[in-house]
Amino acid sequence: MLRLRAAVAACSLTAVALVATVAPAGAHPNGTAIAAALAAPQGGAAPPAAPLLRALQRDLGLTPQEAGARLAHEARAASVQQALQQALGERWAGAWVSGSDATLTVATTDASAAREITAHGGSATVVRHSLAALDGAKDALDRAAGSTTPEASPLWYVDVAANTVVVQSTDTGRTEAFLREAGVDRALVRVEPASDSPAPLADLRGGDAYFIDSAARCSIGFPVTSNGQPGFVSAGHCGQAGSSAAAPDGSSIGTFQGSTFPGNDYSWVQADSSWTAQPQVNNYAGGTVTVSGSAVAPIGSSVCRSGSTTGWHCGTVRQYNATVNYSEGSVSGLTRTTVCAEPGDSGGSFISGSQAQGVTSGGSGNCTSGGTTYFQPVNPILQAYGLSLATG
After folding, report:
1. Where does CATH 2.40.10.10 sit in the chain?
2. Of these residues, 73, 129, 237, 313, which one is catalytic?
3. Known catalytic residue: 120?
4. What average pLDDT does the structure give for the chain?
5. pLDDT in tens, 69-85
């Protein structure tokens, strides 16, 4: 019997120390939580899967030892990021990792918080704007876009490291007019020449082992369950609610229960009872790997994508909460990466370490010359449809 598999890979790993000694728990009101995040191992996990390590070596130019160490450092950084975000509250301005040891840099609007950050494993930088303010400006652009795609601005996103909202533009005058109409604080926005021409990577083109209405083909994302019923999530532009999904051999998988595109780019298919939602994904090396959760990786983390057209490819997370203006309409809340992709990879999974990150939406370039790919984060999909990620 065929088994339901998603087109992504994961690995489990053992966490190692970040970049600083843990301060006593009483150093600040949230010291206990942060110290616990720093000290707690990431579970009794196995070493990283060999196919994932090989993909990281190939695409990021790492040795096997460097690839394994990077995954471990990034897993720890993700835990510290979450704890510090809760501790800083409205003073939080984002975080990212850099360097071979994935040093975590934490931005804050409060200079007095710098000691708190460094005491618990981060490198502090004081900035002018909070992440909430930047996200608010980007939300205003999203609202202004409405149902009309701003043709001169194919992309905008929050650049945490630069502490600004970047709006890419093919026509500065038209973009400036759009910014005025949106009513955003111009001090929060930087306009730069457009470098991307994103387009969905599916439609009537290939994906990983499922067909829509016996015509279009897309990649399975992550296996899920809904009240015990198996299924999977994928890209919204792959199919509409009520569309059928079938395996490559023609056997029925199930039916699309929900789909959103544009605006967002996600969907979910409820599978027939003969299918099993396995917490495993195709590693394109003759085996499978296991997904253990969906913790969000910090900006700068390595991330790998699996798709039937190009297999495994890796890169890094560049920005979260990007708005991409496809010809079909605007999609907000996407994550921008340096991973390459090609038509047929749409809907497939993005993963960082052992943690599910999202499903492939679209991009530009290819896996010969390189490119940029965007993914729809997986957690909002699970929340929107009340789904449970299959984990092991």
Report:
1. 1-12+45-60+138-392
2. 237
3. no
4. 83
5. 999 999 999 999 999 99
Among 241, 243, 200, residue whose Cα is nearest residue 359: 200
Rounded to two decimals, the pTM is 0.73
Pick one of 3.30.300, 2.60.40, 1.10.10, 3.30.1310 as the CATH number of 13-44+61-126: 3.30.300
Q: How far apart are CA 203 and CA 18, in angstroms?
A: 43
For residue 57, what are the CA distances in angstroms to 175, 275, 306?
Answer: 40, 34, 16
Q: Reply yes or no on whether 265 is catalytic.
A: yes
Which one of 1.20.1300.10, 2.40.10.10, 3.40.50.970, 1.10.3720.10 gives the CATH number of domain 1-12+45-60+138-392? 2.40.10.10
- 110 assigned to active site: no
- Among residues 265, 267, 294, 302, the one annotated as catalytic is 265
Q: Tens digit of pLDDT for each residue in 110-121?
A: 999 998 898 887
Catalytic choice (346, 352, 354, 361): 346
